[in-house]
Amino acid sequence: MNAEKGKFLKAAGSIWGQRVTILVAVIVVMAIVQPRFFSSGNMLSILLAIAFYGVIASGMLFVVLIGGIDLAVGSEAALGGTIFTMYVLAHDMSAGTFFTAFLLAILVAILVGLLHGFFDAYLGMPSFVVTLATQYALYGLTQYITKMNYLPVLNASGLFYQLGNGKLFGIPSPVIWFVILAVIAAFVLKKTPYGRRIYAVGGNPHAAELVGVSSKFHKMTAYIICAVTASIAGMLLVSMNMVSSYKMAAGYEGPVLMALVIGAVNLMGGEGSMGGVFFGALLVGIINNMLILIGIDTDYKEFVQGCIIILAVAINVYTSRKSQGLVDQKRRRMPWLNRPKRGAPDG
Amino acid sequence: MVLKPKTIRKLITIGLVIAMALLFGMSTESFFTVRNITMIFRDASYVGIIALGVSFVVIGGGIDLSANGIVCFVGMACARLGVLAGFPAPVIVIVGLLAGALCGYLNGLAVTRLHLSEFITTLASGYIFAGFAVFLVFRENGNVASAAVTNKAFLALGGHIPHTYIYISSVVWVLLAIVVYIIQTKTKFGLHTVALGSNPKSTMMSGVDIDFLKLIGFVLAGLFCGIAGIFQVAYQSASTLTLGDSMGFQAVAVCAVGGVVLGGGKGDAMGAFLGALFMVILLNGLYKISPSPSIQFIFQGLIILVAIFFDTWFNRMMEKKLFSDAVRKRKNQTPLGAVKAEG
Q1: Is B294's Cβ below 8 Å from some Cβ in A?
Q2: What is the predicted pLDDT for the residue at B158?
Q3: Total domain count for chain A?
Q4: What count of CB pairs under 8 Å joins A to B?
Q5: Which residue(s) pair with B139 in the sheet?
């Protein structure tokens, strides 16, 4: 193998090589099957669809990196959006009200995050069950304060309207929010001491404690960041749809986790990057859009998504095991592959 | 007599279940009626049977969230066969069981052969199995339609035992709980599973085929989901695509409440049984007090939190006690190799 070819193969085999290859393959397939895919309207709708998952995923990444999981993001979004709407409905559409409502929702999200962090970091309770339980509790709370009603915002205007419907250079506001939050998350994780310590805590909490990194503090803040981004997503949703309901973000944890996993984030903690999550969210969005464009019944959507997760994770695991030299066992099971070539010198 | 921590933990759970039942019994008239109690046992049997199966995986250190998909798929398969006139009921049951076990086997293969993580595999395969059900669903002019199951012998499975108020599913649940308890505490397979959950590496080192254990765990989880699916379809006499919704998460939560904690190596079938009973009594009692779903949701969440908190605290305390006991023992011993002073 000459050097040129080796370099190319190495680039294609690297993690970003694989990602670009998959994206290009999907887009080529789309170009053949449905040229409407490339219309600018469709591109924007893909971006808009992934924006909400992406906003939550950029916060969830922190929690997954420290080795936890937050299954309550859907209910956190519903609670944040509902509080935001109720405050605005009770007052007016002025900028002052908007900022107060926004801060109020963020404050509640911080409280929820503190609660999660306290249960995980201080009491040592498994985050999976804790957040499952708070998911029930927060949905119940949201239903209780809304009396199970939809809250339509009929006279939306001003900043409340602009939050979800505004446009900058033709790009919808939720997409801008997603990009900004993703860039911030990537910067914090890559370039700040706090971000590097998040990886350290996720990789080995005990070792992190020994070198003086407080795993409790980092766990708490990670849960708070996740709850805040979920709350922001909820407010964006409310503002875009101009209606708030307790089930507006129900089941969002599935696609968010999917984006994380396709982006090669290790659910055990300590591995993953914002770039991967961005790619994961993009692929999930494109595939969802593709299913709609091809005209597949929406009932099959989850089936196809499930298959794609398994495929993505299987490829991911296979390549990482191969790089660690763990895949050779196949040879032992298929001994004829080990047979020396005819004419090859013995020994 | 000194009780083991495991026994104390179980006694506390039993006490909690009884205390809660008494509390609800005192606050509402209609709680301690034969009708209500049989209803509690019927509702608990569906999630309880699933929790029994899932407990194999959880004790082995894994997690299985695919129960919703398996229940949906098995339910739809049984409903498909159940509408055919004159189709033998035992065949329907066997097909249901096989379908469940097959789903579990696929999960197990993905985990042991492809080395995928249990969490994400079963989350995704839940979607996939629910997708199988979408392929099977009844359609009229392309729209999803429902059809009533007409097979009398099959429908009898969802009803009472003749001349009593007891549902067949609750009897099967109790029997299965006993069988699973014996398997988990008395047989080699069960003990190996506990070892796998406590320390997979040393279990593998001591010559146990851990991949096989995991595979069997998943197959059993799938099989039990199949049983639950069959009973649920027989009771409702029709299958919908929402059958078994959120069962996957609920089964794990039920296990955790009963002391079968994520991470493995702790708890047994009795915990899963009590956890399911606890949860269903709670929901039933709350419904009797206030039929608003919001209050039920809030309390369900809070109670799970309290149960997990208690469990974590208890385990920590027991670990501390074991540690301090060991230290005390060590102090009383003469140091190794030292000559005991005479006199």
Answers
A1: yes
A2: 82
A3: 1
A4: 139
A5: B144
Give the CATH number of the domain where residue A32 resides: 1.10.3470
| Cβ pair A130:B308 closer than 8 A | yes
10-residue block means of pLDDT along chain B (343 residues)?
Answer: 76 86 85 86 92 93 91 91 83 93 94 86 90 85 76 83 86 94 92 91 89 93 94 87 83 87 82 90 84 82 85 81 81 62 51
At A125-148, the pLDDT tens digits run: 888 888 988 998 998 899 888 887
Cα nearest neighbour of A129 on chain B: B253
The mean of the pLDDT values for chain B is 86
What percent of chain A is modeled with pLDDT above 90? 24
Q: Nearest Cα to B150, choosing from B91, B78, B94, B46? A: B78
- Does A80 reside within a domain? yes
Contacts of B260 (CB under 8 A, 6+ apart): B51, B55, B58, B59, B266, B267, B268, B271, B272, B275
| CA–CA distance, A111 with A231 (Å, rounded to integer) | 12
Residue A334 is predicted with a pLDDT of 54
Please report the ipTM that was assigned to this predicted complex.
0.80
With respect to residue A337, please indicate whether it lies within any of the assigned structural domains.
no
pLDDT digits (tens, 9 = 90+) for B283-316: 888 888 877 888 888 888 888 888 888 888 888 8
What's the CA gap between B64 and B6, in Å, rounded?
24
pLDDT band for A1, please (50, 70, 90 cuts).
Answer: very low
Interface test with B, best of A125, A142, A288, A330 (most B CBs within 10 A): A125
Any idea where the domains of chain B sit in the sequence? 5-324
CATH class of B5-324: mainly alpha
Q: How far is B304 from chain A, CA to nearest CA, in Å?
A: 6
| Region class of B173: left (phi > 0), else alpha (psi between -120 and 50), else beta | alpha
Q: What 3-state DSSP class applies to B116?
A: coil
Whether residue A10 lies inside any domain: the answer is: no
Kindly state whether B121 is in contact with chain A, defined as any CB-CB distance less than 8 angstroms. yes
A1 within domain boundaries: no
Residue range(s) defining the domain that contains residue A313: 15-324
